[in-house]
Amino acid sequence: MNYWKYSIRAEAPVAELLLAYLSEGPFESFEETEGGLDGYLPDTGSSRQAAEALLTALQERFRFEWKEHFVPAQNWNALWEANFPPVMVEDFCTVRASFHPPDATVEHELVIEPRMAFGTGHHETTWMCLRALRDLPCAGKRLLDFGCGTGILAILAARLGATAVVAVDIEEEAFSSTRENSRINGVSDRVRAYRGGLEVIGTDTFDGIMANIERNTLLTSIPSLSTLLRPEGWLLISGIVEKDAKVMEKAAESTGLHLSRRYERGRWLCLIFRKRSEER
Q1: Largest CA distance in the chain
Q2: Is pTM beyond 0.90 here?
Q3: CA angle (207, 211, 214) in 5-degree steps
Q4: CATH homologous superfamily of domain 122-275?
Q5: What residues does CATH 3.30.70 cover in the chain?
Q6: Residues sharing a CB contact under 8 Å with residue 232, sequence separation 6 or more, in sequence order
Q7: Are 96 and 80 in contact (CB under 8 A)?
Q8: What are the start and end residues of each CATH 3.40.50.150 domain in the chain?
Q9: How far separated are the first and last CA of the chain, in Å rounded?
């Protein structure tokens, strides 16, 4: 997918506030920089107009500068090889590409070829989700990976003993990447990838759901995700910052979910919710 990159230059306290406000807009992801932050916007529909209207409004309240430039779809695998080392998640798992040497010092080793899909473990949100799976029941469970990216979470869940993981993403790159990475990691018999949103799930239900996506999609999807979750099941979400925590908790609680655990890394959060039993 093509993107627009918005480079925002601001002092650290202002940049932190801007991140909170901009996370409510159409941006898909952010990257902190020495001079502020960069926001990435998918080149779809009227998203640029909405993003620039938000930035202009914020300039009336805060002092900062911004500029944009077009980022065409890239070979993310080549960029990863040039710029990133393997990712270590404590002694639990490592994420590497095929050109990295094997690592026998961890419990689980994942080989991920990202191509043009999100999810290599380098971003704080993905790292936290991988870490959170260490604390969640996966063995013998049927799980959903909503917004699967490279399939990294689905693959680890299968490695942890999940009997089946349904992985969905609206991007063609993510769909094909998940299928390829599942094959590489020897779990293609348990990870089923589909291109699309929740509409491809139908009436299927799950013991656990993983959703590492952007804030607005999470917020609008929580009611549907809760419906797909079996009683006593768990929902793992990430892609949010501290400012989003209360609104996410409120949305989840209104559907019968309660906060069970939270993880923090940098400015990002990962939240675990549990679904109350039907008897309650």
Answers
A1: 54
A2: no
A3: 160
A4: Vaccinia Virus protein VP39 (3.40.50.150)
A5: 3-71
A6: 274, 275, 276, 277
A7: no
A8: 122-275
A9: 45
- Provide the mean pLDDT of the chain: 90
Single-letter amino acid, residue 62: F
pLDDT in tens, 127-164: 999 999 999 999 999 999 999 999 999 999 999 999 99
| Contact present, 18 and 8 (Cβ < 8 Å) | yes
Contacts of residue 277, defined as CB under 8 A and 6 or more positions apart, other chains included, come to 231, 232
CA distance 151 to 157: 10
Given phi > 0 = left and psi -120 to 50 = alpha, else beta, which region is 119?
left
Angle (CA) 68-174-91 rounded to 5° is 100
176-210 pLDDT, tens digit per residue, is 999 999 999 999 999 999 999 999 998 899 999 99
Enter the CATH code of domain 3-71.
3.30.70
Helix axes 47-59, 12-22, angle to 10 degrees: 140
Size (the chain), residues: 280
Q: Which two tokens stand for residue 64?
A: 């900062």
